[in-house]
Write a structure and sequence with these properties.
Structural class: alpha+beta
Strand content: 35-45%
Low-confidence stretches: none
CATH class of the largest domain: Alpha Beta
Number of domains: 3
Mean pLDDT: 94
Number of helices: 8
CATH superfamily of the largest domain: ATPase, nucleotide binding domain
Radius of gyration: 25 Å
Number of strands: 25
């Protein structure tokens, strides 16, 4: 193995890390101990009193409980609020504490394998918040992991890639996933769109209103109430659907036997799997795929976090009109950036063709270049830069490059945002 191939599921309550093994082509969840329950690592840090030493997870909780240190949790929320914590007279930013947590969690596979270098790292977070994503990329670089080795998925994407990494009989029909965590109940549904080439796979995600605090599971009456809530959700979400496989994940399903009525509904003529590492394993599969010459996933992936349309330009090249694809449908919006340079020929605008998945007729979007200097035909070169701020929000920048010494660049730029 040239280096560690890792998937990290980073949440405000618990985080998990999975290590991909190229020899078995599978991912294994690892934690602070050998027990499977130790794979759930509380997302908290604790600075030991009088020492420049930090601990994470359950050790952080125990250290704080016995008064031997100061603990900080919910690190992602704290980062979003740009919060701080003052410990023994020193103020630490949320960003600094998150970096400490990441350094210590990434040390786990290093110690278990003896390998130091990280060949590929994929984080998965529940929602693709651009601020968190930017900070994770920056922190990874600060920790010595090159940006090109790091990718970020949301949970919907991680679930999608976990499913299509399994044997095809698992996803022969629709696949459901219930994720029960302390802050809510999330439902994911995977299916293959038949009759499309290339093949389209799609996942829908819904944060269900019926979520409840896991504290109610501490009493028999609370378990019965939670079972009724889950059963109602399952009956509604799975009604009249051909679902072959169901996954149960999240802290609430750590003991999957308690919701008897819910299990009776989901297990009816279906395969049901329980486990706590689905999202980190999905991220690890993508981490391995990202360093291969050819992808093992030749599909158009449609879900949260993915661009739902192909974006292209009509250009003339070697005497023929061709379509230049600037963004492929199914690409991760955060990573999709493209640029191209052209000479304008009898036009004062740039026209984009946006073709949604499943459609053959493109929608046309135009960027006017009336602000650019007027020059003779074929004497204006422009650079077109395409990026995204979300799966349906596209930003276009067109920069006047002039045409050599005869027509120097004006330095002008036109920027326009589109909802596609």
């Amino acid at each position: 193995m040239p280096g560690l191939i890792l998937g990290v599921d980073l949440c405000d309550d618990y985080s998990q890390i999975s290590l991909f093994d190229p020899e078995t082509c599978d991912a294994q969840a690892i934690g602070l101990g050998d027990e499977e329950t130790k794979c759930l690592i509380p997302t908290m840090v604790c600075k030991k009193k009088g020492e420049n030493s930090w601990v994470i997870g359950e050790e952080a909780y125990r250290t704080a409980l016995f008064g031997a240190g100061s603990m900080v949790d919910k690190l992602l929320k704290l980062v979003l609020k740009e919060g701080t914590a003052t410990i023994e007279g020193v103020m630490y930013t949320a960003r600094e504490m998150l970096r400490t947590y990441l350094e210590l969690i990434l040390d786990i596979p290093r110690k278990k394998t003896g390998l130091e270098e990280i060949a590929s790292l994929v984080y998965t977070i529940r929602d693709a918040d651009p601020k968190i994503m930017d900070i994770l990329m920056e922190l990874s670089e600060e920790m010595g992991i090159p940006r090109e080795r790091v990718h970020i998925l949301n949970h919907t994407e991680a679930f999608l890639f976990y499913v299509i990494s399994q044997k095809p009989d698992i996803w022969a029909n629709q696949v459901s996933c219930f994720d029960l965590v302390d802050h809510g109940l999330h439902y994911y549904e995977f299916h293959v769109v038949r009759g499309r080439k290339p093949q389209v796979v799609e996942v829908v995600h819904e944060a269900l209103e019926e979520g409840f605090s896991l504290e109610i599971l501490e009493t028999p009456s609370g378990e019965k109430l939670a079972d009724r809530i889950l059963s109602t959700c399952a009956a509604r979400m799975m009604n009249k659907k051909v679902i072959s496989t169901v996954f149960l994940t999240g802290k609430g399903f750590e003991n999957p036997q308690w919701p008897e009525e819910f299990l009776r509904i989901v297990c009816n003529k279906r395969r049901v799997f329980g486990g706590q590492n689905l999202f980190s394993k999905g991220a690890a599969f993508v981490a391995f795929d990202s360093i291969q010459q050819a992808t093992a996933y030749p599909y158009i992936t449609v879900c949260e976090g993915r661009i739902h349309s192909q974006v292209s330009l009509n250009v003339q090249y070697e005497g023929r009109m061709r379509q230049l694809v600037m963004a492929a449908a199914g690409s991760n919006w955060y990573e999709t950036k493209a640029s191209a340079t052209f000479v304008l020929d009898n036009t004062d605008s740039v026209e984009f063709l946006v073709t949604p998945v499943g459609n053959t007729t493109p929608i046309r979007y135009e960027v006017s270049l009336d602000e650019f200097p007027k020059r003779p035909n074929k004497t204006t070169k422009v650079e077109v830069i395409l990026s995204f701020t979300g799966e349906r929000t596209m930003t276009v920048r067109v920069i006047d490059k002039g045409f050599g010494e005869l027509f120097p660049s004006s330095g002008r730029m036109v920027k326009k945002d589109f909802y596609i």
